[in-house]
Amino acid sequence: MKKNLLFILIVILSANCYSQIIYENGYYIDNSGNKVDCLIKNVDWKDNPTSFEYKLTENSDKNIATLNTVKEFGVYNIFKYTKQTVNIDRSSSIVSELSNDKYVSFNEEELFLKVLVEGKASLYSFVEGNIIRYFYNKDHSDIEQLVYKKYLTDDNQIGENTRYKQQLWNDLKCESIKVSKVEKLKYSKNRLIDFFIDYNECNNQDFTNYETKVKQDLFNLNIRPGFKSSSLYVDNSKTNSRDADFGNKSGFRIGLEAEVILPFNKNKWAIIFEPTYQDYKVEKELKITSSKVDYKSIEFPIGLRHYFFLNDNSKIFINGSFIYDLSMNSSVTYEKYEDIDINEGNNMAVGIGYKYNDKYSIEFRYNTKRDILSDYVFWNSEYKTMSVIFGYTIF
Predict the structure, then answer these.
(1) Residues 197 and 238 reside in one and the same domain
(2) Strand partners of residue 52
(3) Residue 122 CB-density burial (10 A; 0-12 exposed, 13-18 middle, 19+ buried)
(4) Are residues 370 and 249 in the same domain?
(5) What is the pLDDT of residues 24-75, one digit of tens each?
(6) DSSP conformation letters of 271-333
(7) What range defines the domain where residue 115 resides?
């Protein structure tokens, strides 16, 4: 069963890797200043790119442009990248890697900067791993980094160099921007975008906010009822008199799934968390005794989901999850022997499904075996489940 499911997932993944190559209307400007309209493969980069794929026409071969050959590129009304030679500080913000120096150390680099706000004052970003830097300029002046750095103080506390506030107060004064607003300004994309919008509006200047071009619906709450088929086998390594195959039992399951869409790669990746109630009750006649299982639990799966878009209304998804299972007053009982309490356990799950109109979904899910008697030295068990799950997005 697991081999068959793995084969299905691989086939679908392979097929969709090709169907998801989306080229959108855009342009690039080469180093000589020539603007070329083309179709650009929009992969919604998490990190700033150093190259991109494009086609001159829908049916032409793909080409690759790089930082060495292009000084600007974009998809109309979606995004824009500009090549700039800037001084950048690459100090880490990871606590274990912080230095004791509060001052930044710049290196001159040639980078594709993402344009966030373009106007009288413009805002740019650069992301590479855990390094997130913002840059700015005014009236087409040289682009500078907005300086922010975390460091360790002499008493081993985390300090902050917030020179970006002084930079903005010195360079972007305007009647509606008070010093208190700058003092409270956080070094974050959304807060900085708002600040640059305020400055351009205060000066009655036209501007473009590229971050408003794509709707970011990054959280979904889904109710997930469904049907499941579960089986349980238990055995005792000291005696086989209580070994039992309780067989398959169909039942109902209900879950509430929180889905957080990751804001990159065209919203194809999501983190999922789905508390789920399930139960399994079976009686079994053995050779010298009878046995009964009463297993109730709440499962807490947390995992990763990947979408493959078929069109504007339809998408296929696959997901994998780690499941922590919280048993509730559950046991395996024997007529002539003492009861065996079912304990908490964990296992894995993989699923494949279809979602329509960002509202309705159906998923087939396979849970790997779970040992629900792991607290007992001489007992072994295998509890397995397959489910068909229906979903409805309520938020």
Answers:
(1) no
(2) 65
(3) buried
(4) yes
(5) 999 999 999 999 999 999 888 989 999 999 999 999 999 999 999 999 999 9
(6) EEE--EEEEEEEEEE-SS-EEEEEEEEEEEEEEEEEEEE-SSSEEEEEEEEEEEEEE-S-EEE
(7) 77-212
CA 353 to CA 320: how far, in whole Å? Answer: 12
Q: Return the amino acid letter for 185.
A: L
Overall number of domains in the chain:
2
Q: Alpha-carbon distance 257 to 222, whole Å?
A: 5
> Is 83 within the bounds of a domain?
yes
How far apart are the C-alpha atoms of 373 and 342, rounded to whole Å?
6
Please identify, among 212, 227, 262, the residue that sits at the C-terminal boundary of a domain.
212
Between the CA of residue 15 and those of 59, 200, 229, 268, what are the distances in Å? 20, 46, 29, 16
| 361 within a domain of the structure (yes/no) | yes
What phi and psi values does residue 119 have, to the nearest 5 degrees?
-175, -150
Note whether 145 and 87 are within 8 A (CB): yes
Rounded CA-CA distance 112/66 in Å is 10
3-state secondary structure of 194: helix
199 and 102 fall within a common domain = yes
pLDDT recorded at residue 239: 82
Q: Is 208 left (phi over 0), alpha (psi -120 to 50) or beta?
A: beta
Closest CA relative to residue 200, chosen from 172, 159, 170, 240: 172
Residue 288 neighbours by CB under 8 Å, 6+ apart: 241, 336
SS3 label, residue 97: helix
Average pLDDT over residues 101-105: 94
Residue with the two structure tokens 């590479």? 128
Q: How far apart are CA 383 and CA 376, in angstroms?
A: 15
Q: Which of 358, 250, 356, 365 is nearest to 303 (CA)?
A: 365
Q: Residue 338 — pLDDT band, cuts 50, 70, 90?
A: confident
What is the average pLDDT value for the chain, to the nearest integer? 90
Neighbouring-strand partners of residue 304 = 271, 320
Q: Structure tokens of 39?
A: 């179709």
